[in-house]
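> run fold Serine/threonine-protein phosphatase 4 regulatory subunit 3
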Amino acid sequence: MSDTRRRVKVYTLNEDRQWDDRGTGHVSSTFVERLKGISLLVRAESDGSLLLESKISPNTAYQKQQDTLIVWSEAENYDLALSFQEKAGCDEIWEKICQVQGKDPALEITQDPIDESEEERFEEMPETSHLVELPPCELARLEEIADLVTSVLSSPIRREKLALALMSEGYIKKLLQLFQVCEDLDNREGLHHLYEIVRGVLFLNKAALFEVMFSDDCIMDVVGCLEYDPALVQPKRHREFLTKTAKFKEVIPITDSELRQKIHQTYRVQYIQDIILPTPSVFEENFLSTLTSFIFFNKVEIVSMLQEDEKFLTEVFAQLTDEATEDGKRRELVNFFKEFCAFSQTLQPQNRDAFFKTLANLGILPALEIVMGMDDLQVRAAATDIFSYLVEFSPSMVREFVMQEPQQTDDDVLLINVVIKQMICDSDPELGGAVQLMGLLRTLIDPENMLTPTNKTEKTEFLSFFYKYCMQVLTAPLLANTVDEKKSKALQEGSTKINPVCPDNFQTAQLLALILELLTFCVEHHTYHIKTYIMNKDLLRRILVLMNSKHTFLALCALRFMRRIIGQKDEYYNRYIIKGNLFEPVINTLLDNGTRYNLLNSAIIELFEFIKVEDVKSLIAHIIDNYYKALESIEYVQTFKGLKGRYEQEKDRQTLRLNRYRRDARTLDEDEEMWFHEDEDDDDGEAVEKSRPEEEFPESYGKYMETKKGAANGANGKPAASHAASASPNGSPAKSDAPSGTLVVKTAMVGLVDYPDDEDEDEEDEEQSPRKRPRLGS
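> ok
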């Protein structure tokens, strides 16, 4: 179907009171057997699929707006709109709707929903009382007119009748002429009445009246009437602001007069809605729904007209990227694009997709790369806003551009590195811009939005690119503001109180907290890449230096980073933590915090509680072996005693497993067999053995070890496994089902724990043991 008169866009109103574009097609009215009535059908122009099938109900209120819109409600909270390309097509369908409902096509609305009681009263009135008779438009009758307009607002049917009367007699323009007279005479009473009249007419919520009131001839007088609010001692000066303060800047001359007029009108109407009119009450919030729609469709039209003018946009981009362009001109160009992108938010997904693809094809991202690196703060801020629109629309489009940048280019000028540097160099004390940019970076590196069916390798390729070219830029402030362990110890020599790091500068601490938040996100979502980076750079050690910060929020960020790493329950991470002795700064912070019950205390306790609950054996053994003496005095929570309990349970399991293997191998000598029999008799099984008091276990264990040493001291100092394999109690070779290496490994596991009665070993290690220190690292 090529008839442009019937070409329409279908809109539905969403929960946020915004119009969603459902597609473009051609409308027809025909009898549908299934619906048993004349219906409106819209078929998509792309594939002929059915976009809309709506029966014209006799009781539905259809409303015609702006000559090319038909709006109606099919159910509660489900509004529909048809936006016609041509007025003739709208008139044609409107006549069909009115024909089905038996209404006059001259009306702008077929009927209004009214409550039952009002309908009954209305039916009882004589026919002549249906008409609203307007008083003559004279100065002396302004109070009467104001009372009339105010009184009809509570009645939908009377609002409709008043709107018809105002349109039919050209009443609006006559009222605005009276405004000019009252202002010349400084007639404040008349001006106050005109404020009530114009405000009431706006609340009639009729598109036909808006067309008149917001025309070039009338809109400034409408604004003038709204300056004289009776509640104000002095009138506002809205017209002065709109004509003198607010300047319309054409970065490139707009030759289309219709487009220029539409831009002016939209700005002024938006100003009326946002600035002049008071915030609607609960009972008035629906009175201006048509005004919102009026602004919405104006913005859609402006964006469409600009987007179709390829010559205009090409010239804008050419000047934006031209090195010869003056800074002031470039600032105006960037602000234009910011406003342009803001208007595009009124477009629906498919139209917004076309809009941003047009900008991408014209080179918006290379242009942003240039302007975001400029010194002008206003230009950078506007460019950041534009970049946020692009990232929100399509992170993949931005990632694709970034990876296509020439590899020979200096890393510093890559778009993402420009963004990171702008985040790092944010001069705002509250880091408002840095927070915004951090959110954009987070979106770009989030694997959740990299699962596009068109590019299945996007995640791997982009993350490899990011960690190769960008991660060092992101972590540079963190590494610059922390000192590695050797330098930290050197700084502490000769000083009892020195903070080797931790900028006292609050703004720097905030920046480091933002970077840590992003790195914590990476730990959770980039398992392989971030793990490699952390271990290669020894990053966790550097970050834990921030536990010394006087800014508690920064210490918490460092702790949260470590907590997220431990939460991965990855043995590679665990071995890295154990090898680096990285619990020490955390435990030092806990001990320094003393008995204060605060967030830092709770966060550290929760870290150890997680290790206990998840039974991370390697970390439990490390903590108990190295730090339990420093922690055992903490009794207000049972976390550390619980860790010791887990440790002892694992020790018991190791011992019992060893004994079971040895019995199965049938290599035990008579003394060992006797010891085990006595042990079983005394304790009535393994369950009782586990419940014996802790101080009794080392004694039994000592007896066992003495017996074992006697059995193990064979010729040439061979291990017990070899001796047992060569001779059994009866002098014959013992048969073993387990490999000889098994016993060696299991024997090594016995030494996992130091026991209180191993006095010789304790005396040798006492000076070096971290458990003996009142504060770790001192």
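The beta strands are 7-13, 19-32, 37-44, 50-55, 62-65, 69-75, 78-84.
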